[in-house]
Amino acid sequence: MRMICSQERVVENIEISPGIFKLTVKGEFEAKSGQFYMLKCWEDGLVLPRPISVHELNENGITFLYAVVGKGTNLLSKLKKEDEVQIMGPLGNGFDVEKIKGKIAVVSGGIGIAPMHYLIKNLKDCDIDLYAGFKAVDYSVDNVEKNVNEVKISTEMGDIGHKGYITELLQPEKYDLVIGCGPEPMMERVINMCKEKDVPVYVSMENRMACGIGACLVCTCKTKDGNKRTCKDGPVFDGRDLIFND
């Protein structure tokens, strides 16, 4: 798959929930489910491009779903229609969708739902349940409802769905495979639950990244085979290979 680095035009950049934006860029792109692009729309060399996972990809362009959490994503949120954005990718490895079969639990936490939309769309011969956890307000769930059997939602304050964490609803033993993306504490919990029930688990990690190509080692994570670069060796890992800090 060919990597590109180019300036492209914004189709839309809309706030779909407080602090959550959906950015669509026109052009011809490629990506596997779980891969990401590096985006930049500023000249300040001290602010690095931001890694944003692929949310949707079709003949009209590519769409990213992102949370405003720092200076870089705040600048991205200011983009208007027809503005230019620098885009480099696809980067990282992705999910091997051809090998994913059977009854699947897809578990997301917060903005971790972003890459799950494109993944679910590309899974074949699977019975999928979506478990989506949020702080207070859910978003983007309606985009995948038609492609899954059941949707379970949790919010920390109980405004929508189950009050508490989404892992409180998950029963790994009911599935052939669990796939997750979200904050590290949530991913650690999902992996441990799957290990206890001897259920395979794949996760897309959200480690901070700088270069996106494996050169700077900022996004290193620990595995049973030594340190791995999340941007280059991941972001998709076999969860049973990961080692978390105590």
UniProtKB/TrEMBL annotation:
CDD domains: DHOD_e_trans (cd06218). [2Fe-2S] cluster binds at C211, C216, C219, C231. FAD binds at R50, P51, I52, S53, G72, T73. Its cofactor is FAD; [2Fe-2S] cluster. Residues 3-97 form the FAD-binding FR-type domain. InterPro entries: Cyt_c3_hydrogenase_gsu, Dihydroorotate_DH_ele_sf, Dihydroorotate_DH_Fe-S-bd, Dihydroorotate_DHASE_ETsu, FAD-bd_FR_type, FNR_nucleotide-bd, PyrK_electron_transfer, Riboflavin_synthase-like_b-brl. It comes from the Bacteria. Binds 1 FAD per subunit. Pathway: Pyrimidine metabolism; UMP biosynthesis via de novo pathway; orotate from (S)-dihydroorotate (NAD(+) route): step 1/1. Keywords: 2Fe-2S, Electron transport, FAD, Flavoprotein, Iron, Iron-sulfur, Metal-binding, Pyrimidine biosynthesis, Transport. Pfam families: DHODB_Fe-S_bind. Signal peptide: none annotated. HAMAP family: DHODB_Fe_S_bind. Heterotetramer of 2 PyrK and 2 PyrD type B subunits. Responsible for channeling the electrons from the oxidation of dihydroorotate from the FMN redox center in the PyrD type B subunit to the ultimate electron acceptor NAD(+). PANTHER family: DIHYDROOROTATE DEHYDROGENASE B (NAD(+)), ELECTRON TRANSFER SUBUNIT, DIHYDROOROTATE DEHYDROGENASE B (NAD(+)), ELECTRON TRANSFER SUBUNIT-RELATED. Belongs to the PyrK family. This is Dihydroorotate dehydrogenase B (NAD(+)), electron transfer subunit. It comes from Clostridium aestuarii.
